[in-house]
Design a protein that fits this description.
The chain is an alpha/beta fold. It contains 16 helices and 18 strands. It has a 5-stranded parallel beta sheet, covered by helices on one side. Strands 12-11-15-14-13 form a 5-stranded antiparallel beta sheet. It has a 3-stranded antiparallel beta sheet with strand order 6-7-8. A hairpin with a 2-residue loop joins β6 and β7. α1 packs parallel to α5, α1 runs parallel beside α11 and α15 packs antiparallel against α16.
Length: 502
């Protein structure tokens, strides 16, 4: 069978390698260079190594709790049951996870985990180590790799996906195949502040939407609590708090305990909102205090963070550093079954592009790299039967925005009073109205402005124009999904009560 994998993070690389090893003819197409994307930036680790008193069942319970009860139990069971095999595979492919002097894997703990079960590589360079190992593995195969190829759309025939249309060096190139695996990541650049690298513009999800695939849970956007207040955005790993660092206000008080008994180790959405509120109340950033760990420990355990903070003029061993939340991870995406199949025959989705049901309303720390490895491998195994009836245990997708607002489109289009579209304007709008703290009025305003921008949009020709179109499409669907969810849950938080609609 011929298969095209689009994307080269942990999910795409794992899927490509497993498909190749199963005897399929594999082409891997990636937007940037091979290995570009979010995986290489991941400071956190891979959850799933269980020490004394811990178990896969406890990991599953923590995942369900972090997901606010909206995680799909069957998908979570798959994730934790396959964890050991996928971590062993990464080790076999050359990922050198950190070990104690006696050779045992060092296990860390991060927020909302009840036990230390997370493996890291290079202290805080886990994603880079995984990416390097998997890229090297792909390079040693006959997998056909095309770099710097932008996914424009999926090719459809008789209701099934049979290929992709890409933009390469300004030329449209079509490739036919028997199956497509989307592994293009999330859409962090919907927001003014994000940990995601450039290029994370939701291209795969947008292409699937245009083709008619079901999506769900786009309203659940995770904001990482601790980004260094310095440009460009730099994430300070949750593992720092797992080691004992604290969050303090301008008086040195550990304020997160005001909202959650676990304080700094509460779920990410809780910590992020607490930081946002405290920063607004005091008119200045909150601070992360890691001084109690000492300079030697910080340099050993977090070498990348230690280097970057010092390069930017901060002595985090000597004084607390300013931090702020930023958009980090999309829990929703293209709806899949337990083997990565979408509602379109011939189309699979894995990694952050997919909505497997694992994360529910809020992702548990260090489950994303694991999800990419687990479901990337499962999608490749399912290629032998890419066209069965869709077998999803997930909840139904939300209604599309286009189906809800047709009767409002003319009124919205001529409402006026908004600035002209730019990507920066869209990112500010999403940050202000569809971000950490949402209101009914803000969501309604965001939808109106986005619809007006869509009505005025011109045909896309360049990569940047295609990216803008994808971001607008996902912004509309995200804002609509948020407005349709009338109660706060997980990462979706309504700051004010729902107002009467007019």
């Amino acid at each position: 069978m011929n298969v095209i994998v689009v994307g080269s993070g942990i999910a795409g690389l794992t899927a490509a390698l497993h498909a190749h090893e199963a005897g399929h003819r594999v082409s891997l197409v990636t937007k940037g260079a091979l290995g570009d994307g979010c995986t290489g930036f991941a400071q956190g680790g891979v959850a799933g190594v269980y020490g004394p008193g811990d178990s896969a069942a406890r990991h599953a319970a923590d995942t369900m709790a972090a997901g606010a009860g909206l995680s799909d139990a069957a998908a979570v069971d798959v994730l934790v049951d396959d964890a050991a095999a996928r971590i062993a595979e990464l080790i076999a492919r050359g990922v050198a996870f950190d070990r104690a002097p006696d050779g045992r894997l060092l296990l860390g703990r991060e927020a909302a985990h009840s036990h230390a079960r997370i493996v890291h590589a290079g202290g805080d360079a886990t994603g880079a180590a995984i990416s390097l190992a998997l890229v090297a593995a792909v390079r040693h195969t006959s997998i056909d790799v095309t770099e710097h190829a932008f996914l424009v759309d999926l090719l459809m025939r008789d209701g099934s996906v049979h290929g992709i249309r890409t933009l390469v060096d300004g030329r449209l190139v079509e490739r036919e195949t028997d199956a497509v695996i989307l592994a293009t990541g999330g859409a962090g650049h919907l927001y003014a502040h994000t940990t995601n690298p450039l290029g994370t513009t939701g291209d795969g999800i947008a292409a699937a939407l245009r083709a008619g695939a079901a999506v769900a849970d786009l309203e659940f956007v995770q904001f990482h609590p601790t980004i260094l207040v310095s440009e460009p955005a730099f994430l300070v790993s949750e593992a720092v708090r797992g080691e004992g660092a604290t969050l303090i206000d301008d008086e040195g008080r550990r304020f997160v305990f005001d909202t959650h008994p676990d304080g700094e180790l509460a779920p990410r959405d809780v910590v992020s909102r607490a930081i946002a509120r405290q920063a607004a109340a005091q008119g200045s950033p909150v601070r992360l205090d890691a001084t109690m760990l000492g300079a030697a420990r910080l340099a050993e355990r977090f070498p990348t963070i230690d280097r970057v903070t010092r390069e930017r003029g901060f002595d985090w061993a000597g004084e607390p550093i300013p931090v702020t939340p930023a958009a980090h991870y999309l829990m929703g995406g293209v709806v899949t079954d337990l083997d990565g199949r979408t509602t379109l025959p011939g189309l699979f989705a894995v990694g952050e592009t997919a909505r497997t049901g694992v994360h529910g309303a809020n992702r548990l720390a260090s489950n994303s790299l694991l999800e990419g490895a687990v479901f990337g491998a499962r999608a490749a195994a399912a290629l032998s039967d890419p066209h069965p009836p869709f077998r999803s245990r997930n909840r139904s997708a939300s209604p599309r925005l286009a189906d809800q607002v047709r009767d409002r489109s003319d009124r919205v289009r001529h409402r006026g009073g908004h600035e002209s579209f730019t990507r920066a304007a869209l990112q500010r709008l999403m940050w202000d109205d569809v971000g950490l703290l949402r209101t009914e009025d803000g969501l309604a305003r965001a939808i109106d402005v986005i619809l007006a921008w869509q009505a005025d949009a011109v045909a896309s020709a360049t990569v940047a124009e295609h990216e803008d179109a994808n971001l607008l499409l996902l912004a509309a669907e995200t804002a609509s999904a948020a407005r349709n969810r009338t109660a706060s849950v997980g990462a979706h938080y309504l700051e004010a009560p729902r107002l009467e609609r007019v």
